[in-house]
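Morning F.,

Quick status update on the modeling queue. The single chain you submitted on Monday has been processed. Sequence for confirmation:
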Amino acid sequence: MPLVDRLHFAAVREWKRHPLRAATRTAIGKLRQELRQAEYDAVLDLQGSIRSAVIGRLSGCARRIGEASPREWPAHWFFTERIVTHGAHVIEQDVELARNVAGDSLEFSVPLLPVDPEAESWCDAWLAAHFQPAQARSLALITPGAGWGAKRWPPERYAVVAAALRARGLSVLVNAAPGEERLAAPIVAGGAAISVSATLPQLIALTRRVALCIGGDTGPLHLASALGRPVVGIYGPTDPRRNGPFGAPARVLRNPESRRDHTRREAPEAGLLTIAPEAVLHAADELLSEEKDR
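Structure tokens below.
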């Protein structure tokens, strides 16, 4: 079964760049009409941002549930039900919010992500085309991208890690999402890793097969964690207590001097740059050893 029955797309970044364009007003009006026609019973705002709260308001829904102290504080004015959460991690907070939709007593459980037969077939064919069968049994996935530059560990350091993992007998893949090819290029340049560009269902299929995933605070790392794969998280301006890997074997590296900051800066955060490839490899070795023991 799908996890989501319907998707509504909002090109908010494009709208922000061109707020006065007629096309922007038309697109916002179309989204408003689409949301209102769906006649939702409740809006559950898990992002806690001003833009997500505004989109919830566009729906016309009478019940709009969000945190009493959201990540972007003004968002709380758009909620009709403001919930005080107590969990430290964002997933714990989201579960607390979700309980209020129907008053159910919910507990966190590892999600069973859908299996897409077409994506599974693609994955098997892709691996067979790039690796010998023995090589495909020990895969490491590196995901160098992130939502903004301050969270991105330098690609040149990932290249050092990739070469060391390859020397340890692992086959190394680099997830290159659209627009992230420049981040993958230095990692694959030495021949220790192979770049792969996949759709979300394909990435799920591929991640199910990896022995280890390494990356920053980014979607593919959290996907690997949701699939129960061991992960090494390299953190800088975001707090792993709130946004770290959850529910799977993990090692998180973060300089204690790093401060929580969601400003979309382009340069890597200073504390992030103090994390050396050797520390990442040590964490990877620990996880691989634990997995082997299990």
